[in-house]
Amino acid sequence: MNSAIRQAASLLLLYPGPEWPGRLRLIDSTLRALPGPRSEPLLLLRFCEAVAGLPPTELGARYVATFDRSRRRTLHLTYYFDGDTRRRGQALLRWRSLYRTHGFAPPSDELPDFLPLALEFAARCPEAGERVLREHRAALELLRLALADHGSPYADVLSAVCRTLPGASPADRAAALRLARGGPPAESVGLDAGPAGLPHPAGPAGPEGSDAGHGGGPAGAWPGVPALTGHPAEGHQ
């Protein structure tokens, strides 16, 4: 289930280009078919309903205003604690090394800490993906809180992502910063084996078996949804 939530969140956090309406319908129908009374699919469905009536151009403008015009709402995870420093360069190298180790081939025109990319990796490589998301839990929580303060429906997407991780979410920014100093909470539940009911395209398996390797495209892509190409491909500057 966690992998399904992360894959859906990855797709929902991409820039909404012309293909957005079809992508949204596919995600909506897939989420409704997931088993079990969990809150994460409901949060993602609430986001889908909130934006369903918006033309892609209008939602695209909101996307830019939300994620590109505020450093507190960036989708690049290492920026929250490394900023534009030399230290961030080292952090990005570690991300690239992680992807290579697990046979994950992200697009070359996107930084490896781009959240939709990280979520797709976590959907495809659950164990390694879980670890890296937990390492960046504080950044995810800061983004969630900033989106909520902004009144953005994207806050529901981040809430769903954070609920796939162990431990309760911090209530405010100060608590999220304390989380950064103290490290992620200890694992309290087992990791799921992979997406529940989400088909992956056929492709070579990497070091984690079915959880790695996608021959240059996103291993977690759903049928009918274009490959994850980064941020963004449809005229978004």
Task: Give me some keywords for this one.
11 helices; mainly alpha; 237 residues; DMSO/NO3_reduct_chaperone; NO3_reductase_chaperone_NarJ; disordered C terminus; unfolded protein binding
Structural overview:
With 237 residues, this protein is mainly α. It has one domain. Helices cover 52% and strands 0% of the residues. The chain has eleven helices and no strands. Helix 1 packs antiparallel against helix 2, helix 3 runs antiparallel to helix 10 and helix 7 packs antiparallel against helix 8. The longest helix is centred in the middle third of the chain and has 16 residues.
How would you summarize this macromolecular structure in one to three sentences?
By secondary structure, this protein is mainly alpha-helical. Helix content is 52%, strand content 0%.
Main β-sheet description: none
Q: What form results from the Cα inertia axes?
A: globular
Residues in helix, %? 40-55%
Low-confidence stretches: 182-237
Q: What is the end-to-end distance?
A: 34 Å
Number of domains: 1
Structural class: mainly alpha
Could you tell me the number of beta strands? Answer: 0
Q: How much beta, percentage-wise?
A: under 5%
Give helix and strand order, one letter per element, not per position. HHHHHHHHHHH
| Averaged pLDDT | 76
**Rg from alpha-carbon coordinates:** 16 Å
Number of helices: 11
Keywords: Nitrate assimilation
Pfam family, one: Nitrate_red_del
Protein name: Nitrate reductase molybdenum cofactor assembly chaperone
Biased composition (Low complexity): 193-210
